[in-house]
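Before the break, one more example. Copy the sequence into your notebook; we will annotate it together after we see the structure.
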Amino acid sequence: MAKPRAISKVDRALGRLSGSAYGVFTFSDVRAAGISPSSVTDRLPTGTLWRLHLGVYTLVPPRLLKIEGRWRAAVLACGPGAVLSHTDAAALWEIHAIPSAFESDRARDAWLTARGYRVVRFTWRQLVDEPGMVVATLRRLLG
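Here is what the structure looks like once it is written out:
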């Protein structure tokens, strides 16, 4: 019987990174774990590490990655301060699928505000009928 392949320190470290945050991690996470850039590039062609976006990786083949992992990868790819928005965020937080959606929205708003985030809400009608106002408001708030 063949002897199982030994698991390297790098593989163990990558496994730890993949074990949290929906299986998605950044190149910065890799470097902080003491893993060399060449260890990343060496694993990409073998299918033992997958690049989802520039600087965002997973050990899970992308077609098997759960939607939460895809969302996390997209947010990480957008950089510091990026957030998941609108329908996807509502799905992640399981909002608007229950009668107490309004209360859940307000509780989440309070939680985010207490942590220093600014919560901005637009109605569907504003998004459809007044996209210029929505864009101008976001530019003003983000600028």
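The mean pLDDT is 83. The longest helix spans residues 101-114. Try to locate both features in your own notes.
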